[in-house]
Amino acid sequence: MHELSIALNIVELAGEEAARGGYTRVQAVHLRLGRAAGVVKEALASAYELAREGSAVAESELKIEEVAVQIFCPRCKVERPAVSDVEPQCADCGTSSTQVVAGRELEVYALEVLE
Amino acid sequence: MTPRLVEVRQQILKKNDATARALRERFRQEGTFVVSLVSSPGAGKTSLLCEILRRLGAEYRVSALVGDLATDNDARRLAATGAAVRQIVTGTVCHLEAAMVERALEGDADFEQPWRLDELDFLFIENVGNLVCPASYDLGEDLRLVLVSTTEGEDKPLKYPTIFHTADVCVLTKMDLADAAGFDRAAMLDAIGRVRPGMRVIETSVRNGAGVVELIELVARGRACGAGLQPETNFGTGL
Predict the structure, then answer these.
(1) How many domains are there within chain B?
(2) pLDDT-based confidence at B107, cuts 50/70/90?
(3) Does B231 map to a domain?
């Protein structure tokens, strides 16, 4: 389980961003998590509670937005949802794709700050 | 005081990715081709790597880093081939990170001096036995091999898709045991094709030598072509 490592990375990153923006109170950290990122949402949420202790974002809540897997379908010539989180096939026509355009996100995209 | 949403948009693993990029650049400049091996514990990474080092070592200058939670048993096994080998003991960490590779190359209290990459044609990195966590960490390698043995379930690619998404080539190991284990080759190939369409599969056996030459040719060609081996599908860098 590498969720604790990931959680520690999030805390560090959020702390740096807060310091850079001069925000002393971070209420929440918003995360975009791809369903194919290989990180378990529930495990990450509990790891975050440990990781934030004593940090610059100790009072923050981790808000996780999951991102579904999307592929570029070579047959439909557009971006389509994948048939499942593990199989990069077009949900519409079933064609296999080698271009995954979403679903691997592991990104802190916003801080909710009080000022 | 009112809450406000401030957009920051930062990749969580950006430090690892930056370290890996710097390593990759260095490997390219020094002419070292880097191959990593990932699999579940017991799939046969060390045995296969011993065979590769032994054969490839006859022609090239080869080296290996090996990650484990504890002991330097694997490093000793690999070093018996005559290759330059260093063990990375991760303690409780279940995967290797780019910074660990960087430190091992530099040498620390355990290692006497930095490795000279210009004196190494190949560097193999054997990750900690784990099909989950290593998927998230770029190590700066040119080629990532995912190993699955015939004694594991044929649905393993479906259970652990992320590692297959980030690997370039799938190596089936212990093919000599296929019959005894009731291995369903077609089901395994189908599962690999479903999670990673078009993925190259090499069937090997360290016992009878099957596929080892094909694998060695693959890495030798990779070194000769440099960046020519980039996979068509790469979930890891596709975003």
Answers:
(1) 1
(2) confident
(3) no
Q: Which are the contacts of A20, defined by CB distance < 8 A and separation ≥ 6?
A: none
Q: Write the residue in A5, A38, A106 that is nearest to B11 by C-beta.
A: A106
**Hey, are the CB atoms on A108 and B9 less than 8 Å from each other?**
yes
pLDDT at position B233 over 70? no
Residue A97 backbone phi and psi in degrees, to 5 = -125, 145
CATH of the domain at A43: 3.30.2320.80
**B235 domain-assigned:** no
Mean pLDDT estimate for chain A: 94
Domain membership flag for residue B122:
yes
Report how many domains make up chain A.
1
Whose tokens are 């780019």? That residue is B98
Best of B1, B2, B6 to disrupt the A interface (most A CBs within 10 Å) is: B6
Q: Give residue B225's pLDDT band: very low, low, confident or very high (50, 70, 90).
A: confident
Both tokens of B120, joined, read: 């190494």
ipTM of the complex: 0.85
Q: Which domain holds residue A74?
A: 3-114
A38 → closest Cβ in B6, B97, B162: B162
Is residue B57 situated within a structural domain?
yes
User: Whose CA is closest to B147, among B127, B177, B176, B121?
Assistant: B127
Interface residues on B facing A, Cβ-Cβ cutoff 8 A:
1-15, 93-95, 97, 132-133, 135-136, 158, 161-163, 165, 193-198, 232-233, 235-236, 238-239
For residue B51, the domain's CATH number is 3.40.50.300
Calpha distance B172→B39 (Å, rounded): 10
